[in-house]
Specification:
12-stranded antiparallel beta sheet; alpha+beta; 5-stranded parallel beta sheet
Length: 669
């Protein structure tokens, strides 16, 4: 009775992640893992490191890079997209380019030609098979869930399968969920029992585990267990001493064993991903369905990974921006590298990790999108960037790049300071999430969970969502970008606006506008809408943008049948690297403004950002009231619950009756 253990780890950090995050990962996870592995030369391990992470280690930690090189004889290197894109979410030409870039790096530094590929977030789509074969890939790692959804039974998953598309075949190794949840969280005895359960008479069963390397030291409480309490060292020793277990590489198993069967997979990722990609109500309905029908697990897939592109407008915008730039493929290596970096997956989705909720990840994506724009500049363009069926209008003054969305209220969807590679519209709409209903207030309780034995530790999937004090769970019904048109009752307060509880009387904030004029430096949009009270009162709004060098002007003209006094509020939402860097008209932002609304009356608002070393100057024709408040989101993370600032909201208030004309100018210098 014997089984082959196929043991692999996958390690990745988002492109341009904070140095302190990388240094902690190196010291607490990557380096100690390989130091202990070196003590056991008979323990074979398969590894995938994203190309950007390998580059970082090569440049910043010679000891670790040399250590990995010295272990090459007992390692099998898996390739993948160099900057860890979801392969099915990027164009074919970029897919092949990214895989070959990483394979060439591995060949150069570790003298291996990879045959296996790590599938980012295990997002499978048959469309990638042809490109994988072009890159010399023979086998891919997926989840056992992938095979379960295609009808394979759990007891038959101890090896690899073949699949094909248009006559191109490739092998699939399914990661075992029991092992994924056990290592390194369960006791050594329990883990060994699970491994031994794969044993059979001819020894051809494979126990397959290929999971996050960060589980070994970075995930909460794992450093203590894995290294200080010697879990990893004891695991290696125990496994090698067990005569029922043979430790093999994926290549050895693939070479020496036939496939189990042919199988066709749906478009799928691991189960949790499908759950996370659904809307809040659908996720809760799915959880309820499985609670009452646990046997239906293999028949239910939730959403697909690309559902994140419809769930979060911000994800879709980044994705479609790099799709747009890929279509303009430029021969410059600098362009291609910036494009590839923008395709890093982490920013596009959200589950246990922050993902799209993390402003710095979005900043990094836009940094490289803007780099591409600067390498192939154009004055203006008209195109449907986000595939919503409506055109967007792009204006480039060589200092500012501005993109206006026709469909979504004629809003400014992107506003790039080209010199700084910074998008001031990198804000995030406050979405309702299924886990919001599970957040608890408890100052005493620690983030723990009950597990089968006292020797086991919790995974991040077991985290309780506990906060020390009540937090505001505000959700938005419109996208939080800029130049948004609101018509509201005259008694609307700053608190109403902050809580998104104000009474919107018109249909201008999130409805389509029509193009009136499209010129070299100006864009004029109109909407024939209404004010809705006891009935609909015909109302028209014209919005004229003007783009000159470092200045954007917005002229508004409103004409309505409604005769009662109202307020027109033009809303801008601007993203900054940190509120700590800002001053308003020379005043430092107070602690109160970081959590509640603030009002001032002025004809000119100057915002100085010491991070960008830029001053944003809003000028008006007359003195007006300005409402300012923080745009904060509530999300879950590997630590529990995060309250993250996504920017500042500015409401420029104009009282009016029947007609209104006003002008705003934003100068950035």
């Amino acid at each position: 009775m014997k089984t082959s253990l196929l043991f692999g780890i996958h390690c990745h950090q988002p492109v341009d992640n904070f140095d302190w995050v990388l240094e902690e990962a190196i010291e607490k996870s990557y380096k100690p893992f390989f130091k202990i592995l070196k003590e056991f030369p008979q323990f074979k391990c398969s590894i995938h490191y994203s190309g950007w992470l390998l580059e970082y280690i090569e440049k910043h930690d010679e000891e670790l890079f040399s250590l990995i090189k010295s272990l090459s004889s007992q390692l099998e290197f898996f390739t993948g997209g160099y900057y860890e894109p979801v392969l099915s979410a990027i164009p074919s030409v970029d897919r092949v380019g990214q895989i070959k870039k990483l394979s060439n790096y591995i060949k150069k530094h570790f003298n291996q030609q990879p045959k296996g590929l790590w599938l980012t977030e295990r997002v499978w789509d048959n469309s990638i098979i042809k490109d994988l074969k072009k890159c010399g890939i023979q086998y891919v790692v997926v989840d056992d869930y992938h095979l379960l959804t295609s009808g394979v039974k759990t007891e038959n998953l101890n090896g690899y399968f073949l699949t094909e598309d248009s006559g191109e075949s490739i092998a699939l190794f399914p990661i075992n969920q029991a092992l994924r949840y056990a290592i390194p969280f369960y006791s050594l005895e329990k883990t060994e029992n699970i491994l031994e359960s794969f044993s059979n008479l001819d020894g051809k069963n494979g126990a397959i585990i290929f999971d996050d390397g960060e589980k070994f030291g970075i995930w909460p409480k794992t450093y203590e267990t894995v290294y200080e309490k010697n879990w990893l060292r004891d695991f290696f020793a125990q496994t090698l001493a067990n005569e029922k277990i043979s430790v093999d590489t994926f290549e050895e198993f693939y070479t020496n064993n036939p496939p189990i069967a042919l199988s066709y997979l749906p478009t799928v990722s691991y189960f949790e991903m499908g759950e996370w990609s659904m809307t809040s109500n659908d996720t809760l309905a799915l959880e309820h369905l499985l609670e009452n029908n646990p046997e239906a697990h293999q028949f239910i897939r939730g959403g697909t990974w690309k559902n994140f592109l419809t769930k979060y407008q911000e994800s879709n915008w980044i994705h479609k921006r790099y799709i747009e730039l890929s279509k303009k493929q430029d021969t410059q290596l600098k362009y291609k590298d910036a494009l590839y970096k923008a395709q890093c997956n982490d920013v596009l989705w959200h589950g246990v990790f922050g993902g799209v909720y993390l402003p710095n990840l979005r900043d990094n994506a836009f940094k490289y999108i803007i780099e591409c724009e600067k390498l192939i500049p154009s004055k203006r363009e008209k195109l449907d960037i986000d595939f919503d069926g409506y055109e967007e209008y792009k204006y480039n003054t060589s200092e500012l790049l501005t993109i206006i969305s026709l469909k979504n209220g004629g809003q400014i969807f992107e506003l790039d300071i080209l010199e700084k590679n910074f998008n001031l519209q990198n804000t995030l709409t406050r979405y309702e999430e299924a886990y919001h209903s599970k957040i608890e207030i408890n100052k005493e309780e620690e983030l723990t969970t009950s597990l089968p034995t006292s020797n086991d530790i919790a995974t991040i999937h077991d985290n309780k969502l506990i906060v020390d004090e009540d937090i505001s769970l505000i959700t938005d019904w419109y996208f939080k970008k800029s130049a948004i048109d609101h018509i509201v009752p005259s008694d609307t307060t700053a608190i109403d606006f902050y809580n998104s509880s104000f009474h919107e009387l018109s249909d201008f904030a999130n409805q389509p506008y029509k193009l009136k004029k499209y010129k070299a430096k100006t864009l004029t949009l109109t909407r024939a809408g209404g004010i809705f009270t006891d009935k609909k009162y015909e109302t028209s709004l014209e919005k004229k943008y003007k783009f000159v060098k470092n200045t954007i002007s917005v002229d508004i003209s409103i004409d309505t049948e409604f005769e009662t006094p109202l307020q027109y509020i033009q809303e801008w939402n601007l993203h900054f690297a940190s509120l700590e860097n800002l001053t308003f008209n020379g005043m430092i932002i107070t602690e109160e403004l970081k959590s509640e609304p603030y009002t001032l009356t002025t004809r000119c608002l100057e915002i100085y950002d010491s991070y960008l070393e830029k001053t944003l100057i809003f000028s008006f024709e007359k003195e007006i009231e300005i409402i300012i408040f923080p745009l904060n989101s509530v999300s879950q993370s590997e630590q529990g619950v995060d309250l993250t600032n996504q920017g500042l909201t500015f409401g420029f208030v104009h009282p009016f009756t029947k007609t209104e004309q006003n002008s705003l100018q934003l100068e950035i210098r």
